[in-house]
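Good morning,

Both structures are done.
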Amino acid sequence: MAGGEQGLVGVMLESFLAEGRQEPADPARLVYGQSITDACMDVDTTAGVLSELAGAARQRRATAESVRS
C-alpha cells in the first residue's frame, strides 16, 4: 500500500484482549478476554497493525499527491 497500490481500500481485523480463541466451556473455566468464536489478534498486535497501515496510507496519499503536482 505504501508503494501506491490502489486496489486496497479497506481491511477487517479480528481483535480481542487476548490472542487466539477458545472452545465454549463452563464460564468459570473460560479465559477472560479471549474469543470463543474466531481466532483474534491481541490488543497490542492490533495497535501495531493499525499504526503500520496508517503510515502506509499516509505514504500512499503523499505519493499520489506528488504525482499530481
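Second structure follows.
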Amino acid sequence: MQEVGGENDGATHQLARFVTAEAPFRLTGMNVRVIWRRDRYLRGSDHISFQAQGYPAARFTEPRENYNHEHRDVAVVNGVQNGDLAEFVDFNYTARVARVNGAALWALATNPSTPKGLEIHITAPVGFSGTNTTTLTWNPNPESNLTGYEVVWRETTAADWTNVIRVGNVTAVTLDMSKDNVQFGVRAVDQAGHRSPVAFPQVVTT
C-alpha cells in the first residue's frame, strides 16, 4: 500500500467512510469522526483481531474517556468512585451509538456489495505508469438491480472521496487523469440510488 500512497485506503478505512455516509447526524443524532489510527494511542481493542483475519473492522468509541470507570475494580479510591457502574452510563449517548450501528448494518445488508477484482493498470516496468491516463477494470457485481458504477477520486491530502464520475453499467474505464496525482476507487449504485462501500484498486502490470 505504501508505494501507491494507500495507507488510508484499506478495507477498514473504506468501511469507516461508508459508515460516516450512511449514518449521518440527521438520522442518528451522532457526529461520526474517523481517526486514521488503528485504535487509540498505543492501544488496541477487539476489532484488531478481526482485521488480523482479513475482515474490515472498526471501533466506535467516545472521544474523551473517563478512565475511572473502565478496567477498574468497583471501589472508592481517594473519595472517587471507580468501576463500570450503571450510574455512570450515558444512556442517551448509548442510544445514539446504537442508531449509528443500526444504520450502518442496514446499509451493509441492503446496499450493493463492494465491487470485486478492482485493478488499476500500469505499463511495465513496475513503478512506471507510462501514461497520463488511468485505466480501471473490475468484476461485475452479482446484484440484478444495478444502474451502474461510479469512479470516485480525491486529492491525496483529502480524508474522504470528494469527486464522482458516473461511468454507467460497465466493468472497465479509461480516464484522462493521471494516477500520480489522486487516489481512485469504484463503487456500485442500485436503482434506488444506494451505493456500495468503495473498492480500492490493486496494481497490475500490463
